[in-house]
Write a structure and sequence with these properties.
Elements: H1 3-13, H2 18-26, E1 29-33, H3 66-79, E2 83-89, H4 112-120, E3 125-128, H5 148-172, E4 176-180, E5 185-186, H6 194-208, E6 217-222, E7 233-234, H7 238-248, E8 251-255, H8 265-273, E9 279-283, E10 285-287, E11 289-293, H9 299-310, E12 317-321, H10 330-349, H11 353-361, H12 365-375, H13 380-391, H14 399-409, H15 429-436
Parallel strand pairs: 1-2, 1-12, 2-3, 4-6, 6-8, 8-9, 9-12
Antiparallel strand pairs: 5-7, 10-11
The protein binds L-rhamnitol (RNT) and zinc ion (ZN).
Length: about 450
């Protein structure tokens, strides 16, 4: 008997059908955030990342062009089992022939290359208006700004993004989840907490009252508790976003980096599913703050997956990942994050949930605890290996291939010898590239 066959029997004794679990997992779509590949830079402005979020680290190999980003995504996709969807930000518009329009004017055609890319790979596309890293973010405010010119600009951006989302859905034949997140807030104690929220509501109404095809575009609203530079107050708080979503009939999005450190999104999933037909997630890993570390197979990721599965809500939860670690190989970060989320889901699907629920309902709490702990020792790794085998990817060691690509593409290159052939002190990729007129700069591994 193979290891998988042995594992399958062990699970069967608990009433778990591993084949069914594997097949179910194959059908779960997880949305792939393009912004992990280039530290949330995008292609439409040279503005530094703003909005209270930060990508830290200077590992070489950041994608600088759409072509590089697409190639990087392709390698990641080849190492990720299961179904994915492309998750784009508006800032990843691709302008051609010298054309450039501002974010209030962008149209579907500026994303045609992404549509071609997605269609060739049978992927749907999710979308995000980009309310950060832009000159029209005035004093950190967008849709809640008291400056009508600013507020209107961003309302127009939201409307433009709804149209683009419709275009994605029409082109791919797959509905587009469009997520709205704004960074608006204040560093210090506000003198007025109400008016900014009233303006945010008005702006959202103006965007969403513009007709759009609700059968093709699913709008979600992401809340946040604080950001770097907006520590005292965020306009789009949890209560604001939940209340707005339920009133407007849109979907709330929970990013598990966006709550106080002892709050857990896993517990919030069943609470929201009681009231909302659908719930959306940004799965991430915050360390001490919303640090957006790569998702790994930790307790909360497992518990989030358990809740989705226990609630029988795989078709009611839109799962997207949201992290950006610039301190390690970015393709590896994607693959590890995706595999971790899938491992968590597989573990949940291989849990005898019906039996555990029965123990809870009959107040057999000691037995429930024993069974939960026993489940932790089950050979889930063998089921994972079988899932990977069936999906045509290796269960482990995927880093070798990434390293090979890293060496071949030359994006991760050697530190430039400048003029005299000596090693140059690396400042930043961009700075060196500018200095020497290269597209990408040569940095020594680890340098
Ligand atoms: C920021 C939010 C938001 C962004 C992306 C880039 O805190 O999590 O989702 O990370 O839109
Ligand atoms: Zn997020």
């Amino acid at each position: 008997m193979t290891r998988y066959e042995q594992a399958k029997n062990m699970y069967a004794q608990l009433g778990v059908d591993t084949e069914q679990a594997i097949n179910t997992l194959k059908d779960v779509t997880i949305s792939m955030h393009c912004w992990q590949g280039d530290d949330v830079h995008g292609f439409d402005t040279d503005d530094a990342l703003s909005g209270g979020i930060q990508a830290t680290g200077n590992y070489p190999g950041r994608a600088n062009t759409p072509e590089q980003l697409m190639a990087d995504i392709d390698l990641a996709l080849s190492l990720i089992p299961g179904k994915t969807k492309l998750n784009l930000h508006a800032s990843y518009a691709i302008f051609e022939n010298g054309e450039h329009v501002d974010r209030d004017q962008i149209r579907g055609e500026h994303f045609k290359k992404w549509v071609d890319f997605a269609k060739e790979r049978n992927m749907g596309i999710d979308f995000n208006p980009t309310y950060f890293s832009h000159a029209m973010v005035k004093d950190g405010l967008t849709l809640s700004s008291p400056d009508e010119e600013v507020r209107k600009f961003w309302v127009e951006h939201g409307k433009a993004c709804l149209k683009i989302s419709e275009y994605f859905a029409n082109e791919t034949g797959i509905p587009c989840v469009m997520n709205i997140w704004i960074p608006d807030g204040y560093k210090d104690i506000p003198a007025d907490r109400f008016a900014p929220r009233a303006r945010f509501k008005k702006s959202l109404d103006e965007i969403l009252d513009t007709p759009y095809d609700k059968s093709k575009v699913y709008v979600t609203l992401e809340s946040k508790v604080f950001g770097i530079g907006v520590e005292s107050y965020t306009v789009g708080s949890a209560e604001f976003c939940l209340s707005y979503s339920i009133q407007k009939g849109i979907t709330p999005l929970m990013d598990n980096g966006h709550y106080h450190p002892t709050e857990v999104v896993s517990d919030k999933i069943p609470a929201l599913l009681t009231f909302f037909p659908e719930v959306a997630l940004h799965v991430t890993r915050g360390i001490r703050w919303d640090s957006d570390h790569v998702v790994v197979l930790d307790d909360e990721t497992k518990e989030i997956a358990q809740e989705i599965v226990r609630c029988d809500a795989l078709d009611r939860v839109y799962i997207a990942l949201d992290f950006f670690d610039a301190s390690i190989n970015r393709i590896s970060a994607w693959v590890t994050g995706f595999r971790s989320m899938q491992k968590a889901l597989l573990t949940a699907l291989c849990t005898p949930s019906a039996a555990l629920k029965e123990l809870q309902d009959s107040s057999q709490f000691s037995r429930k605890m024993v069974m939960m702990e026993d489940c932790k020792m089950l050979p889930i790794g063998d089921v994972w290996a079988e899932y990977c085998r069936q999906c045509g990817v290796d269960a482990d060691n995927y880093y070798d291939e990434i390293e090979k690509y890293e060496n071949e593409t030359g994006k991760t290159i050697v530190r430039i010898c400048g003029v005299c052939g000596k090693e140059e002190q690396a400042v930043s990729e961009a700075e060196l590239a500018k200095k020497y007129g290269y597209d990408a700069v040569l940095l020594s591994p680890g340098g």
